[in-house]
Design brief:
alpha/beta, 262 residues, globular
């Protein structure tokens, strides 16, 4: 088993008045369980005051369905063997919400943040995470909005991005998932977020062209920094080793590579 490890240099960095220092890490493509374990370790260490800064993790996951606290097996419309044959995992986890899908081409952001020190209530945190997705989408001329039927980002009645948050010791983890260049086929195997008949979409579909993931990442980072009054950690104070096991081999974009049959 791969163990997540991180170490912090002892040099201090002064932050601008009214902001908080944030470690920002792009993990590339990783297995879901690796990054979940990393989040648990970061929450434990932050609660234990091994570091006080916030942490933002950006990642694309290997194909997986996750079931939150409200998730039910009935939300999965195919057999587990069907998923095994297609290399899609299933994870029961502690975040809020129902069932959703993560996979290549989807940008996931996990913000590990102390709500009390940030002066936020959970409702405010969720609203700001939604706003991050809306602003990121609008950067590429996709008019995303909120929808009273479910949290997240929507374009009309099509769902573009989802939210699932957990809190432990007043510290947030899990986060948001925005469909960028995602192959949406696996969403047809479930009732996404417990919503029967909901249609999923992506920035690629709404904008009519493949999106530059690096550009989307930088836009999202900027909006998270702005919404949560964060200041990126300088190189002199950073998580100098952040390891949750080997990266998954970088896959071709699922919308431009050959798909497996079935």
């Amino acid at each position: 088993m791969n163990h997540c490890q991180f170490f912090i240099q002892t040099m201090t960095t002064k932050n601008q008045k009214g902001t908080r220092i944030c470690f920002i890490h792009d993990l590339g493509r990783r297995a879901y369980t690796q990054v979940r374990t990393l989040q648990h370790e970061l929450v434990r260490a932050k609660h234990g005051r091994e570091f006080t800064e916030d942490v933002l993790l950006l990642v694309e996951h290997d194909p997986v369905f996750t079931l939150g606290r409200q998730g039910r097996r009935e939300g999965l419309l195919v057999s587990e063997q069907f998923l095994v044959d297609r290399g899609i995992g299933i994870e029961h986890i502690e975040r809020g919400g129902d069932i959703t899908y993560h996979g290549p081409g989807q940008l996931v952001a996990y913000l590990i943040l102390n709500l009390r020190l940030a002066g936020l209530r959970i409702t405010s945190f969720v609203s700001r995470m939604e706003e991050v997705m809306l602003r990121t989408s609008r950067d590429v001329q996709v008019p995303a909005t909120r929808n009273p039927k479910n949290k997240g980002a929507w374009v009309g009645e099509r769902k573009l991005g989802s939210l699932g948050i957990a809190i432990r010791h007043g510290i947030t983890f899990h986060g948001l998932a925005l469909n960028v260049n995602t192959d949406l086929t696996p969403f047809s195997y479930i009732h996404p977020c417990g919503l029967a008949g909901v249609q999923m979409t992506s920035l690629h579909l709404e904008a009519g062209q493949l999106q530059d993931m690096d550009r989307i990442k930088q836009a999202m980072i900027g909006h998270i920094i702005d919404e949560f009054s964060l200041e990126p950690a300088s190189q002199s104070r950073a998580l100098t080793s952040l390891d949750c096991g080997p990266k998954t081999r970088e896959a071709k974009d699922p919308l431009t590579s050959d798909k497996q049959s079935g």
